[in-house]
Design a protein that fits this description.
By secondary structure, this protein is mainly α. It has a single domain, classed as Amino acid/polyamine transporter I, CATH 1.20.1740. Helices cover 71% and strands 0% of the residues. α8 runs antiparallel to α15. The protein starts with 5 loop residues before the first helix and ends in an 8-residue tail after the last helix.
């Protein structure tokens, strides 16, 4: 076994490994099934028409290839912080820190966007939530509640996420189970929208990738997963297969109900179900809000542990690395993350935040795929026998190539923003790096 920084070879004694396959799969599905599955069928139809289901297959293949790399890498270095930990083991503390920074910022942006979308959806029924102080209080209160749930302990938080995930699957099951009987076959053949361009397809691809991102955030709890060599790969594969099938089915049903109107739908699934029954459309609308809130609940487990990991390694203030004496959870990091998410949710829109979140996440995917290859080449394993994913090199090539293409779809302003953030993060690393990291 290769030797590297002690900061990633051992896990802090305060964290307990007690998350199994079912709970981890539910956590992954909770992240996957957010606002995207309720809102993105419309822009996907607008960009690629009737080929939208095939586009989901492409996005699933791209992100799935990345997650296969991550599954092996996390089984080799199963520490709190997920990608940050195994990238550090592969390339050193600078790349680990940069990965953690990208991963956390992507999570904050994505969750803030989803929370804003949930408030907007509720605002259509309760106008007071559309804007003003009531909206602000609701968003701050929700994120504070998530931090409190996380404070109860990781097992309690995982069970809470599993419960929310099971509840929010009900409206989707209703949409598919009822809507599939009312599909008009002619509606399934949608033309490309007039005036569409390669740029439109590229932007839709970014949003499509967003639908499949988030598991890398939940992998931050890999330091608390029991038997990670078996649990992590199984949970990743199960969650990805279930979610990809769900996305494709939902798109087909929505197209079959709305036809050409799908491309311009503001709330595609509720509007599609309203073609069958107005009350059923209202139920699906309520399910969309539950799903969005469930997404933020899943994130509240993983993202604070990225802050915890960076503080643990000396890159962020030590207070963020504090573990609650009773629940053994990183409570300071949880409340800090909640505060930042609430602030962004109050100031941004879903689409803008989701696009930037995806482009930032792509950087994590690119570095993570390369790290997985290096970990296997150096035979690094810090917790027993690691998983060995068949065809790892092929998955890595697909993942890296796909992420390079997605990056090329960014605007100049977005690319500049990511470059500026990279510079700032690098300066923080140079300033805060612990003595053990100097010279590496």
């Amino acid at each position: 076994m290769a030797n590297f920084s002690a900061s990633v070879t051992t896990e802090p004694s305060g964290l307990v490994r007690n998350i199994g396959t079912v709970a981890l799969t539910a956590t992954f599905l909770g992240v996957f099934i957010g606002s995207g599955i309720f809102t993105l069928p419309a822009p996907m139809a607008a960009a690629v028409g009737g080929f939208a289901p095939l586009a989901y297959l492409g996005c699933a293949l791209a992100v799935g290839s990345v997650l296969m790399c991550f599954a092996e890498a996390c089984s080799r270095v199963p520490v709190a912080g997920g990608p940050q930990g195994f990238v550090e083991a592969a390339f050193g503390p600078y790349w680990g820190f940069l990965t953690g920074a990208f991963n956390w910022v992507s999570a904050v942006l994505g969750v803030a966007g989803v929370a804003a979308a949930a408030a907007d959806a509720l605002g259509t029924v309760l106008p007071a939530l559309a804007h003003g102080p009531v909206r602000s209080i609701a968003l701050v209160g929700w994120f504070a509640a998530l931090a409190i749930v996380n404070l109860r302990g990781v097992s309690f938080a995982a069970r809470f996420v599993a419960l929310v995930t099971s509840i929010k699957l009900i409206p989707l099951a209703l949409f598919i189970g009822v809507g599939i009987w009312f599909i008009a076959p002619a509606n399934l053949v949608l033309p490309l929208v007039a005036g569409g361009s390669d740029g439109d397809i590229g932007r839709a691809a970014i949003l499509g990738i967003f639908m499949f991102t988030g598991v890398e955030t939940s992998l931050a709890i890999s330091g608390e997963v029991s038997n990670p060599a078996r649990t992590i790969p199984r949970a990743v594969i199960a969650a990805l297969l279930v979610y990809a099938s769900l996305c494709i089915t939902v798109q087909i049903v929505a197209q079959g109900l709305l036809g050409t109107a799908l491309a311009g739908a503001v709330a595609p699934l509720p509007q599609a179900m309203a073609q069958v029954s107005a009350p059923l459309g209202a139920i699906v609308a309520a399910g969309a809000v539950i799903s969005m809130l469930g997404y933020t609940a899943s994130d509240s487990i993983g993202s604070p542990r990225m802050l915890f990991a960076m503080a643990r390694d000396g890159f962020l203030p030590g207070a963020l690395g504090r573990v609650h004496p009773r629940s053994r959870t990183p409570w300071v990091a949880s409340f800090t993350h909640a505060g930042l998410c609430a602030g962004l949710a109050l100031s941004g829109s879903f689409t803008a935040l989701a696009i930037v979140a995806t482009l930032t996440c792509v950087m994590v995917y690119f570095i993570g795929c390369a790290a997985a290859l290096r970990l296997r080449a150096r035979n690094i394993a810090t917790a027993g026998t690691p998983a060995r994913i068949p065809g790892l090199a092929v998955f890595a090539c697909i993942g890296i190539g796909s992420m390079l293409w997605v990056t090329a779809q960014s605007t100049l302003a977005e690319a500049t923003g990511i470059a500026v953030f990279t510079l700032i993060a690098s300066l923080v690393y140079r300033w805060r790096r612990p003595p053990a990291a100097i010279g590496r």
